[in-house]
Design brief:
440 residues; alpha/beta; five-stranded mixed β-sheet; five-stranded parallel β-sheet; 17% strand
Length: 440
Amino acid sequence: MRLMKRIVYSIISLLFLVSFMLPNQTSANSLREEQPLLNYVALGDSLAAGYLNDKTRGKGYPDFIKSEVENNTGYVVHLNNFGVGGYRTVDVIEQLKDVKVQQAIADADFITYDAGANDVLAVIGDVTKFDPTDEQLLIKIEETIKQVAKNIAFTLYQIKTINPDVDIYVMGYYNALYFLPNIQEMVEMLIHSLNNAIQSAVSMNKANYVSTLEAFEGKYEEYLPLPDIHPTEAGYVAIAEQFLAQITPNLDVLPVLWHTGIGAPSDELGYNTNKYLDIETLDIYEKKSNQWELVDNLKFYDGEELSGSGEPREEIGNIGDYYLDEDTNRIYIKVDASTWIFFDELNEEDEEAGSGNDEETGNEEDEGSENVEEDDNKDKDTQTETGEQEEDQTKDGDKQGEGAKLPNTSIASMNIFVIGLFMISVASLLYFVYRRRLVN
């Protein structure tokens, strides 16, 4: 019984060791262990909060900004959305006194802001009864718009005091009252006046103004199908796109993180914008919207075989090229314009096979002297060509040029070895079990 236990423990230990030898999916050229984080703070009214055209709640433009940044840049975005329906510019100022909001702003990488429309709407009252000939009302609206500009300027100053380096993006308004055709001339004039005031406050505080007016023109039936000032989700997507056009260029571009393995990548591996090389098929995958998508194959490229001393520099070679580091016998493959990935290691058998085929065997002793002379001449020609190649390599200071064809790698032989080792272990276990039964 003790012998049997020892055998079982030995086989379990062996299988545990073998599991580390089996091919798996790993990261290559990784400059970071974790997905980089962006902190995003949204301040504003019901548009930030996600009030929809059908008077329900859904995703506002901050939600679409978050998802698009994550899908297209490789960052994970932590969104603190402080948008509240009905908020005016003074409400946002009051909100900045909240310690939680202050801490979020202090940690933020970028901030979006929309407020001011509710200030004006509060003066107008019922928009369906708006009288554009009421001079006193127009004066109040003008004064309110001036105050909106002052409040936004103060808000931006407060934010910059908390976080001097944060990027701030302030929204200009679309025509939310297009469903009032009889007073469109006055509505458009008021919207332009409000947006000009917002833009003025933004420019004085080194923030970014985001226009949405043009994005809605000609698409009111899709973005504002009902007589309500809040857009559909499609309208929020359009607003988010206007923000993203300015946010994305200001983000640091992340280097592409490559993974390698045998077979298609698992869903859990990597994150958006990562790439994966199947070293068996040379398929290239890219992760988009949290799913791996087959995008290319290195077999489509006319790759050359290079060699040199040390790891390959990123500026040499083209996509699909192979490179042998003559110092370590490590083989690399170029997967994009600036990235070489370790592909495999040249084993001793491959190296001997590659250097042992220079002469043909099987010369008969009874061959004539003419054949011997021809062979000698061929050897001389071969030595001359070899000398010229060595001279060319010496001239190349970096020794990173075109080399001989690289021999087959040891991936297949390693797989056969592992499988054979596993089968021997199982057979040994069965044999000892059989012997044990015979003794009993």
